[in-house]
Amino acid sequence: MRTTAPETPQHSALIVNALRHHVDNLVEIVAKIGAAELAATSSAAGGPDQDAVEAMVSRLLQQAGHRTVVAQISYAAWPVTERFPVLERLHSGLLEHRGMVRILIPRDALVDDENMASVRTLSERSAHIRVHPYTLPTTAILDGALGAVAAVGEDEDRRLIAVRDGDVVRALQAFYNTIWSHAIALADMPDESLRWPEDSTAARVLRLLCLGYTDEAAARKLGLSVRTYRRYVAELMHHMKANSRFQAGVRATQLGLARD
Fold first, then answer.
1. What CA–CA distance (Å, rounded) separates 120 from 90?
2. Which residues of 158-169 are buried (b: 16+ CB within 10 A; e: fewer)?
3. How far is CA 180 from the centre of its chain?
4. CA-CA distance, 9 to 55, in Å (whole number)?
5. Rounded distance between C-alpha atoms, residue 248 and residue 245, angstroms
6. How are beta strands 100-106 and 128-132 bridged, if at all?
7. What is the SS3 assignment for the chain?
8. Strand partners, 147
9. Could you tell me which residue ranges the HTH luxR-type domain spans (predicted)?
10. Which of 70, 134, 181, 250 could be stapled to 100 by a disulfide with Cβ–Cβ 3.0 to 4.6 Å?
């Protein structure tokens, strides 16, 4: 019987690096959608189709009382109250009606303790939240059939564009699902935000840990004693809520903390 070898932190890092290609493609798609849609709406209606997104959200919230509506949302920044109140209304309304809400949030947005607290509160309301290390545009995929993306331009932090083309929505959803599968659950986020400089000893210890160095080899490379190196590893495991070095390495790659 064939068995599948467990994914190592090194393998996970390769997957994450490959995923960056998909992220770049997603951003490019969003930029093209924004340019095309804005050109069309400007000539036809004198402005972006923000009203179409509002109508889309209102319709789904009405349906949420009778069936399970699924929303997959990726936010470029947090909080979203001022930037995209319509999306906040969407995920809040769906949670009230027991809808399925998945939210992706970049790690850098949660460095602020107040932001982290508000996201944890949302999670307590049954939102499924995962954290990733990428730079993604704000995107919403609704029931796998409709979408909304942040426009690319001067007011991109405020403007949403409705996406109705089925092929484009499915492509956006495929990218979203891939990123979701490699993101870290909010519940597994470290107790501390791990705000160390890239050249700090802790960051270098984490990188060597993920690369599979032995304690002796890593300590020698860093100019540390083996005992000191192991103390750093133990502290990192504690901060990352990891029960093993393997788990710490995987979570580090999920959060983009183990870059070469």
1. 18
2. ebbbbbeeeebb
3. 7
4. 44
5. 5
6. parallel
7. CCCCCCCCHHHHHHHHHHHHHHHHHHHHHHHHHHHHHHHHHHHHHCCCCHHHHHHHHHHHHHHCCCCCCEEEEECCCCCCCCCCHHHHHHHHHHHHCCCEEEEEEEHHHHCCHHHHHHHHHHHHCCCEEEEECCCCCCEEEECCCEEEEECCCCCCCCCEEEECCHHHHHHHHHHHHHHHHHCEEHHHCCCCCCCCCCCCHHHHHHHHHHCCCCHHHHHHHHCCCHHHHHHHHHHHHHHCCCCCHHHHHHHHHHCCCCCC
8. 141, 163
9. 203-252
10. 70
Region of 194 please: left (phi>0), alpha (psi -120 to 50) or beta: left
Residue 206 CA to its chain's centroid (Å): 21
**How long a stretch of residues is the chain?**
260
Q: What angle do CA 182, 96, 161 make, to 5 degrees?
A: 60
pLDDT band at 254 (very low <50, low <70, confident <90, very high): confident
pTM for the full model? 0.74
Specify the domain boundaries for CATH 1.10.10.10 within the chain. 201-254
Phi-psi category of residue 256: left, alpha or beta, with phi > 0 → left and psi -120 to 50 → alpha = left
101 beta partners: 71
Segments of the chain assigned to CATH 3.30.870.10: 9-188
Neighbours of 133 (CB within 10 A): 22
CATH superfamily placement of domain 9-188: Endonuclease Chain A (3.30.870.10)
